[in-house]
């Protein structure tokens, strides 16, 4: 009997879980038994491993081979276990010393010729290995920069199974990978490109400063998409913790940009209105993948032509937007993804919408109401800012005298406002006005009742819900932070209320 052990990592959401790979070679009819809740991809790894071992110049053991993946109760998914399985089999066959692979973490998919191919989720896998006390991992060369983002671990990059065997046999050691400088992200679109639309630009600035959700309505060509695309440029760069979170999600989703593995800028996701619920929130028939909402974590989720999305799909956003995370349940397990994103909705006022605006509308009042009702009240109640954009005038487009303010100038004010809110909320674990619980907002940072008169009347009339009242307060604090005031005044509350109570013209 010959027994060998090594390690790999499975994924559950954005968290890695250590998986011990055990291989037992015993006399008997040559066969391979794989146990430990493998999915179809992991079961097929037996054939990939067999071909890779043979094509690397070694014999696959003609014995009864039992491969165990522990913990046995955790589902194992994906092709990232291939390299660990191959090395464990070779160690069990005495081709490699078992003591050298006992504490080694191996990640990667094998080609039939023994080549080592990149896999998804290397960053969270290496983070899990470090937390478990491992100090050395072997990864495919294409994943080396991503693995190198983690401190406290030696990353060995290999191109083939033969390279790994030569290293473990002591013939040709693999060199510890040193990650090169991260390429700077290209600049995004500039806010100076947006002509006119003072109300839209103001709402965008307030949204960026406080992390508020935004709803833009207006005719085609008014600039809704242009404004939304420029919101990430107003947000500050991601700090180290946020960058690792966003990069881990991108790694699992397979959207990590080549050559710049660490995502340092807020992301921008704009799914098409034909996107399914699984594409928007996350899911999948096999391994659970993050959806557009999760990929927009710490960034912006833009939903253009929002009324064209199925209403059930839109309403799935309500709970994740409140909690900042989404848990997806399947029969064989569940996965939780963070999704603290800023939501930006854009919509035309009616189905026939033209650049001329309401003056050229041919829709009946019933058609307009039916179109607008596709956005449910509970979803809109979670939107802090609602702005109706008018058509861009000829004078603004052709005869503008002053150049519009650019992204850099507005981003400077956003940075100052965020710094003011962070100083005020120091010690609370909060950083943005949009995240402050309503009770804490009223008790710890009260606003004078005289300044709240308009909002209180709107609450009495039913124009505001209690949740909406709290959201008006949050926006008022953001407006005050932008203006450098220590407490919101009546004008700040009035502006916040005006931004919330706007509707698509009926």
Task: Write up what this structure looks like.
The chain has 506 residues and is α/β, with parallel strands linked by helices. The chain has 2 domains: 2-168, Ribosomal Protein S5, domain 2, CATH 3.30.230; 191-501, P-loop containing nucleotide triphosphate hydrolases (Rossmann fold). The chain contains 22 helices and 18 strands. It has helices spanning 40-55, 82-92, 98-101, 122-131, 144-147, 161-168, 198-210, 224-229, 231-234, 240-253, 277-281, 292-295, 311-315, 318-323, 365-372, 377-380, 394-398, 407-424, 438-444, 453-461, 466-483, 490-501; strands at 2-12, 15-26, 31-35, 64-70, 105-106, 109-110, 116-117, 136-140, 154-158, 214-217, 268-269, 282-283, 289-290, 300-303, 325-330, 333-338, 342-347, 385-388. The strands form 6 sheets. A 5-stranded parallel β-sheet has the order 11-14-17-10-18. It has a 4-stranded mixed β-sheet with strand order 1-2-4-3. A 3-stranded parallel β-sheet has the order 5-8-9, sandwiched between helices.
User: How many DSSP H or I helices?
Assistant: 22
Q: Which regions contain 5 or more consecutive residues with pLDDT less than 50?
A: none
Give the overall shape.
elongated
What name is given to the CATH topology of the largest domain?
Rossmann fold
Largest sheet descriptor: 5 strands, parallel
Coarse structural class: alpha/beta
Task: Kindly give the count of domains.
Answer: 2
Strand content: 15-25%
**What top-tier CATH class of the largest domain fits best?**
Alpha Beta
**Strand element count:** 18
**Architecture of the largest domain in CATH?**
3-Layer(aba) Sandwich
Mean pLDDT: 90
Radius of gyration, whole Å = 27 Å
CATH superfamily of the largest domain: P-loop containing nucleotide triphosphate hydrolases
Q: Order of strands in the sheet with the most strands?
A: 11-14-17-10-18
Helix content: 25-40%
Q: End-to-end span in angstroms?
A: 79 Å
């Amino acid at each position: 009997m010959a027994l060998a052990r090594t390690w790999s990592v499975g994924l559950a959401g954005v968290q890695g879980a250590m998986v011990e790979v055990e291989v037992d070679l015993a006399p008997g009819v040559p066969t391979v038994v794989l146990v430990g809740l493998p999915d179809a991809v992991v079961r097929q790894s037996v054939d990939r491993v067999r071909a890779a071992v043979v094509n690397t110049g070694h014999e696959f053991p003609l014995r009864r081979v039992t491969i165990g993946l522990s913990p046995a109760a955790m589902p194992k998914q994906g092709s990232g276990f291939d390299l660990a399985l191959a090395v464990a089999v070779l160690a069990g066959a005495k081709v490699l010393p078992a003591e050298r692979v006992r504490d080694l973490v191996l990640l990667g998919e094998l080609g039939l010729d023994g080549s080592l191919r990149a896999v998804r989720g290397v960053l969270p896998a290496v983070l899990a290995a470090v937390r478990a006390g491992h100090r050395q991992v072997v990864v495919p060369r294409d994943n080396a920069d991503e693995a190198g983002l983690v401190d406290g671990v030696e990353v060995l990059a290999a191109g083939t199974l033969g390279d790994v065997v030569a290293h473990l046999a002591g013939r040709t050691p693999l060199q510890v990978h040193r990650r090169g400088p991260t390429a700077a992200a290209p600049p995004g679109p500039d806010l100076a490109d947006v002509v006119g639309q003072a109300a839209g630009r103001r709402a965008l600035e307030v949204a960026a400063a406080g992390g508020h959700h935004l709803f833009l309505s207006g005719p085609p060509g008014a600039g809704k998409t242009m404004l939304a695309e420029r919101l990430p440029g107003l947000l500050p760069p991601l700090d180290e913790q946020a960058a690792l979170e966003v990069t881990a999600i991108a790694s699992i989703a397979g959207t990590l940009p080549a050559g710049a593995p660490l995502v340092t800028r807020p992301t921008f996701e704009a799914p098409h209105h034909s996107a399914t619920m699984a594409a928007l929130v996350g899911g999948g028939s096999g391994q659970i993948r993050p959806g557009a909402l999760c990929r927009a974590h710490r960034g912006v989720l833009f939903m253009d032509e929002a009324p064209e999305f199925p209403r059930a799909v839109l309403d799935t956003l309500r709970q994740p937007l409140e909690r900042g995370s989404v848990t997806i349940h399947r029969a064989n397990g569940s996965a939780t993804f963070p999704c603290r994103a800023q939501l930006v909705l854009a919509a035309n006022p009616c189905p026939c919408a033209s650049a001329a605006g309401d003056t050229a509308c041919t829709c009946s009042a019933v058609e307009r109401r039916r179109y607008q009702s596709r956005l449910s009240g509970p979803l809109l109640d979670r939107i802090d800012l609602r702005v109706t954009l008018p058509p861009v005038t000829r004078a603004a487009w052709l005869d503008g005298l002053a150049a519009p303010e650019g992204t850099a100038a507005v981003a400077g004010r956003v940075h100052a406002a965020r710094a003011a809110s962070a100083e005020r909320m120091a010690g609370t674990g909060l950083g943005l006005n949009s995240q402050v619980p309503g009770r804490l907002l009223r008790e710890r940072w009260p606003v004078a009742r005289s300044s709240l008169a308009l909002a209180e009347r709107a609450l009495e009339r039913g124009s505001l819900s209690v949740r909406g009242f709290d959201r008006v307060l949050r926006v008022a604090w953001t407006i005050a932070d932008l203006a450098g005031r220590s407490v919101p005044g009546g004008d700040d509350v009035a502006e916040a209320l005006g931004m919330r109570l706007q509707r698509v013209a009926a």
